[in-house]
Input
Amino acid sequence: MTKNLKLFAAASFLAVISSGPAFADAISDRQEKMKAVGKSMGIVGKMAKGETDFDGEAALAAFVAMKEAADGFEELFPEGSETGGDTEASPKIFSDREGFEKTHADFEADLETVTSGEAPADVAALRASVGMVGENCGTCHKAYRVKKN
Output
């Protein structure tokens, strides 16, 4: 084997090996973002259901945390990260990228709406916001998530 061919083979091998952890990072990063969204949705959901006391400022802070977690989320699905890391990402994300990105954009737009003004004034206002944001969560989960047991 010539020196150039050996170098090419070594570089190719390193490229393949190094691509694995990048996908693992994308998977773990998107899982962390989803945990943050879930935690925040739990906070506002419990308030909306009356399971915890209403606190408009805490609700607004939870929506802001969701918005921050949603930022850049759609970029954490590079080709090749379809499997591994206990991902719950549906293959549909990769075959219907346009639909996935539109669904995510709708989610971000609703979060922009609920975070651009004052904190919810009362439980009724909070319920409306939770319903709007939650609908996007459900739409995305139904279409683009594979629930693991």
Notes: Residues 35-75+86-144 form a domain with the Four Helix Bundle (Hemerythrin (Met), subunit A) fold (CATH 1.20.120.10). The mean pLDDT is 86. The first helix runs from residue 3 to 49.
